[in-house]
Amino acid sequence: MTDNNAAVQIVRDFLAASMAPDPVRAATFMSDEVRITFTGGRPMPTPTDITAFNGGRYTWVKKALGQFDWCEREDHTVVYSNGTLYGQWPDGRSFSGNRYLDRFEVKDGKIVRMDVWNDSAEWMLVPEIAKA
Prior knowledge:
It comes from Pseudomonas reidholzensis. This is SnoaL-like domain-containing protein. InterPro entries: NTF2-like_dom_sf (IPR032710). The protein is built from four helices and six strands; from the N terminus they run ααββαββββα. It has a single domain (about 5-130), classed as Nuclear Transport Factor 2, Chain: A. It has helices at about 5-20, 25, 45-55, 120-125, and strands at about 30-40, 40-45, 60-70, 75-90, 95-105, 110-120. Helices cover about 30% and strands about 45% of the residues. The mean pLDDT is about 90. Strands 2-1-6-5-4-3 form a six-stranded mixed β-sheet. The radius of gyration is 15 Å and the shape is globular. By secondary structure, the chain is an alpha+beta fold.
């Protein structure tokens, strides 16, 4: 089983590569059979798909990493990362304070599952609730 600190570091390293964005490096932290589900229940087969999706939703986006929490399961470690997103919408408006929560499962040194939630869809639907 993966050590707690090692699992959190794997997630941190993955997030850093994702934000670069360097989907090739990000993929090195993931199992070949990784299951990624993005906001709205969208399946993302690879980190390259994540980069492409974000490229269509934002001009650019980064994460202000917040807290990491983890717990051990029978054969893997669950790691939660929360914080906020900041960046620019395609129309040029800046944003910050957009909450996110990512849940990862790390097994044998690789991310095997990733689930992503954030406020972007709500902010796009009702722009006046967004903080810039």
